[in-house]
Specification:
The structure is a single chain. This protein is of the alpha/beta class. The protein contains 9 helices and 13 strands. It has an 8-stranded mixed sheet, covered by helices on one side. α4 runs parallel beside α5, α5 packs antiparallel against α9 and α7 crosses α9. The chain is globular.
Length: 322
């Protein structure tokens, strides 16, 4: 039985890890920490016991094997570093951290201590992603030439947590949203991102918080030279828009497109009219792969090395926008 401690409840995404921990036969929720009084009260109202006020004190004193991180973005890197120094595996809501210096220390500690680092990224293991990966791997669209993805989110100003609007707490909109898309693109194409061509983050029609850059777009290349264009801005009016996440891939022999939330991948090649290829179950997710690595079974794709490399890619694209 592996004991899990949760450090921070400042983003609701972390509740998914709490639920998965409680449902998993090999995991036990050992303790929770939250330093913000209002966030702590809200978490307790949800039926989650929060015994610790200081995540760092919990990491130092509570016997556990895994630290799950859901604190404000700017604090996540330091919490991950403290957990790794204490000999704990780490799994975080994205982003893992907000600086390349923090990431370098996380990479160093994980390597030296043989510890696993996970991220709560669900898109790569979604059924449509499996179908897209298979079509590309089988050469159905030929050599990948171009990828475009959108991950437009609603800003939700007035209902999103107040820390989000505090300067230097969010760490950049590309680093905030793009990990999902970058991770999925690397999974379905079988290629890593190679270079950043350009990136831009800017404040657009959001005078309430002038320093907050709700617009974010970038261009990059994959290992084979294929181009990637992405828009991960906070411009959506709500989460239900079709372009919340949309992925389109052009190849030398064909084309495919899908939205993770809707079953089916649209596909066509030079000899086939456009048709739907229906999804395949991956049989796994980010938590299963994380636990497999802890138990000595190196995952083929979603492993610590990939997560650290993908985080570095994202942080470098974010840095290019500055």
């Amino acid at each position: 039985m592996l004991k899990v401690a949760i450090a921070g409840f400042r983003h609701d995404h972390i509740l998914e890890l709490v639920n998965k921990t409680n449902e998993h036969p090999e995991l036990e929720l050992a303790g929770c920490a939250e330093s913000d009084a209002a966030a702590k009260a809200k978490t307790v109202e949800r039926g989650i016991a929060v015994e610790w006020n200081d995540p760092m004190e919990m990491i130092e004193k509570l016997p556990c094997d895994i630290v799950g991180i859901g604190d404000v973005y700017a604090k996540r890197g330091s919490i991950a570093i403290a957990a790794l120094k204490a000999g704990k595996h780490v799994i975080a809501d994205k982003p893992l951290c907000t600086s390349l210096d923090e990431l370098a220390e996380i990479r160093k500690l994980a390597g030296e201590k043989g510890l696993s680092v996970g991220l709560m990224l669900p898109l790569w293991s979604s059924p449509n992603a499996q179908s897209a990966r298979k079509l590309i791997a089988e050469g159905k669209i030929g050599e990948v030439q171009s990828v475009i993805f959108t991950g437009q989110h609603p800003l939700n100003y007035g209902t999103r947590a107040d820390w989000y609007w505090q300067e230097n707490m969010q760490g950049g909109t590309i680093n905030d949203i793009a990990p999902h898309g970058i991770d999925l693109v690397e999974y379905i194409t079988g290629m890593k991102f190679a270079d950043t061509v350009c990136a831009r983050c800017w404040n657009d029609h959001f005078p309430e918080v002038p320093h907050f850059k709700n617009g974010s777009q970038f261009m990059a290349t994959l290992e084979n030279g294929a181009g990637v264009m992405a828009d991960v801005s906070y411009f959506a009016c709500h989460f239900g828009q079709p372009s919340y996440w949309r992925f389109t891939v052009w190849g030398t022999e064909g084309w495919l497109e899908f939205v993770p939330a809707e079953p089916g991948v649209k596909f066509t090649d030079k000899n086939t009219p456009a048709k739907m290829v229906y999804p395949e179950n991956s049989g796994t997710d980010y938590l299963q792969e994380f636990l497999a690595e802890i138990n000595g079974k190196q995952p083929e794709y979603f492993n610590t090395r990939h997560i650290l490399d993908m985080t570095e890619t994202t942080l470098k694209i974010q840095a290019a926008a500055k």
